[in-house]
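In the laboratory, one determines a bound structure by crystallizing the protein with its ligand and collecting diffraction data. In a computational setting the workflow is compressed into a single prediction: the sequence and the ligand go in, and a structural description comes out. We illustrate the idea with alanine.
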Amino acid sequence: MNSETLNSTSLNSKFATSQSMDTASIRQQFPILHRTIRGKRLAYLDSAATTQKPQVVLNSLQQYYSQINANVHRGIHFLSEQASQAYAESRTTVQKFLNAKEARECIFVRGTTEAINLIARCFGEAFVGPNDEILISEMEHHSNIVPWQMLAKRNGAKLKFIPLNPNGDLDLSNLEELLSERTKILAITHVSNAIGTLNPIKMIIDLAHTKGIPVLVDGAQAAPHLKIDVQALDCDFYTFSSHKTYGPTGVGVLYGKAHWLEKLPPYQGGGDMILKVTMQESEYNQLPHKFEAGTPSIAAVIALGTALNFLMNLDREAIRQHEENLLQLTEKMLSNFPGIQIIGSPKQRLALLSFTMKGIHPHDIASIVDQEGVALRAGHHCAMPLMDFFAVNGSSRVSFGLYNNEEDIAQLAHALQQVQTLFKGRI
Ligand code: ALA
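The predicted complex, in structure-token form:
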């Protein structure tokens, strides 16, 4: 490949608009970005798997455990009141982040996977019976496939799929027919975690609603990058994970319209989700507590609030533009490599892409670039049906966070050249 494409100075000047966001000062706030990996600068290009955490989030975790550690909603002592208040404030922050109508519509769960499992279990129990249909798409992450397969098996329902176009967009030409009289719910990803397709989610929701069908949106790969407005989208359920949104692991959010959540049975039984328990039966608590049995991940919930405030205090549109520039730059860089094939060419991609390198296994690529300090994800990305659609066993994925810069892409280009050098004559 042309050595100019490896030169970070030329990359910088080509996409000068990226500089309108002060990436340097943002990077300063992420301590992990300053460590070296195998003696090399870290180029972290795996934010779709999990994002790195800013210092304010780390401080929030430390502060909770060192200053206010106590259980929530249980004690009347000072610390428990402080912890409960911080926990409740975090819910209000989530409400603001999603523009939900009410804070009680925002349920803390373990992550997107648990949120979808909760709906598959509780909505399934209440509303899905034999021969009913559940509609998803062929581009879903396993966590938006397997819970529905389990439900279909349990209740004798049928799982149907929105197909794909060869470019990796959803084929929506038959959506109206796919949304049948028997369809009880449509569950669809906002953004593909494997190839980055940004779906026309509003149009899909509106169409489903014309037939009275509720829609769950898997927002795991959208919430870190887009301003989400659940009222404008009018979705019935929306899910995202803290750890992909600059917060800690172990917590995520299930948004649901109150009228739906009120109709669903509880997910788990235990403390906090009840008002009264006798030996024979129980009376369940109000929203949101009905779905939050047991001691929650208190520190993580509070630090998620910190992470969302961190994001909301930044210029989200500038971040989006910055990540878009990085994506275009990466596409351009990869297209200069012989044998590299970017998977799909959707109309709109968000913050990530996947590629294959002729004759080289994605795991080999990830191992070799790792030696150069570059972190990529390799494999099927928990989207095996999508990999089958593109007839590949797996791919290498580059995904961005707000802290990435042109230097990361130049470092990736250099590392990929090492891969080609090592495999020269063998492919
Ligand atoms: N769902 C995460 C990813 O796509 C783990 O990498």
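The chain has two domains: 78-312, 316-422. Keep in mind that any predicted model is a hypothesis to be tested, not a measurement.
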